[in-house]
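Subgroup meeting minutes
Present: P.N., E.W., G.H.
Scribe: E.W.

1. P.N. recapped why we're keeping a running log of single-chain structure predictions: easier to compare across weeks, and new members can see raw inputs and outputs side by side.
2. G.H. added today's entry (139 aa).
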Amino acid sequence: MRRFMKSIGKTAPARSVNDYLAMLPENSRAALKRLRKTIKVAAPKAVEKISYHMPMYNYLGMLVAFAAFKDHCSFFVMSPSVTEAHKDLLKRYDTAEGTIRFTIEKPLPATLVKKLVKARIKENEEKLRKRETASRKRR
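Output recorded in log:
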């Protein structure tokens, strides 16, 4: 992220998602504003913050994040299993473990983002249930 910020002439890290978006070129800003709105609709209980110099959403742990880079944007689902479970829907995109790269000319569809965010919510809720069950068994 710092490399990108230097490439657009900014070096100070953003303190809020609004600050982060304001530092971006207009075309990247518009694409990521749409992504942000979709995430908020899919995860209304998620807390928005800046973490690792990028917008991050937290719900029972890290949920999803996004970032702009010089030649692409990334949507981080932070879960190889969610990426794998949706690989048929993601085959048009460049993916890596828990990361989906896209261009501003070809943004992620809102329906896809919602599915991925909801899958992450379900995953985080299941992890919490498992921790609570394990905790009760130890007592």
